[in-house]
Amino acid sequence: MSRTLEATIDIAASPQQVWAVLADLPRMKEFSPQCRGMKVLGGPVGIGTSTININRRGALVWPTTSKILAFEPGRELRFRVNENRTIWSFVLEPSETGTRVVQRREAPTGTTKISRTLINLAMGGTESFDDEMIVGMNATLTRLKHVVEATPVTA
To answer: Is the pLDDT of residue 124 over 80?
Structure first.
């Protein structure tokens, strides 16, 4: 079973400013090195909203779907990837310098057999893939930080 993965960054902006960028789910491709697209299905994003995602690692490209489990403006975005049962979250916490963002990937019920098989056959095994995911999560948060801190504050 995959272990819980986590990355944290401090962003010099309010939780609302961070949320304004993070909650725009189609922009996820700007931040995540693996996500090439995230399309929201239906109307406004909220708990229960579904997405179709395109992921890429080198020459490998694969689709996934996800369901939003938490959507609390300025506080938390959490979704479950249906194909492997992993839960991804971004938690925003006010800090002395702005906002601390914690990104986490959990597999509380384990991952699917097909997911484990594909990771072992095509992605170097669970431990290697998890290590790569942590690197990607740190890259995601760094890119998010650069975008948010470069975005002018509007009153």
So the answer is: no
Dihedral-angle region of residue 78 (phi above 0 means left; psi in -120 to 50 means alpha; beta otherwise): beta
Kindly report the CA angle at 12 between 10 and 14, in degrees rounded to 5? 100
More confident site: 148 or 129: 148
Q: At 130, which amino acid appears?
A: D
Q: Specify if 45 maps to a domain.
A: yes
Instruction: Report the alpha-carbon distance of residue 7 to residue 135 in Å, rounded.
Output: 9
Give residue-wise pLDDT tens across range 35-63. 999 999 988 999 999 999 999 988 889 99
CA dist., res. 105 & res. 84, Å (int): 12
The amino acid sitting at 105 is: R
The total number of structural domains in the chain stands at 1
| Cα dihedral: 79, 29, 119, 139 (round 10) | -100
Is residue 155's pLDDT more than 60?
A: no
d(CA 72, CA 45) in angstroms, rounded, equals 11
CATH label of the domain that carries residue 135:
3.30.530.20
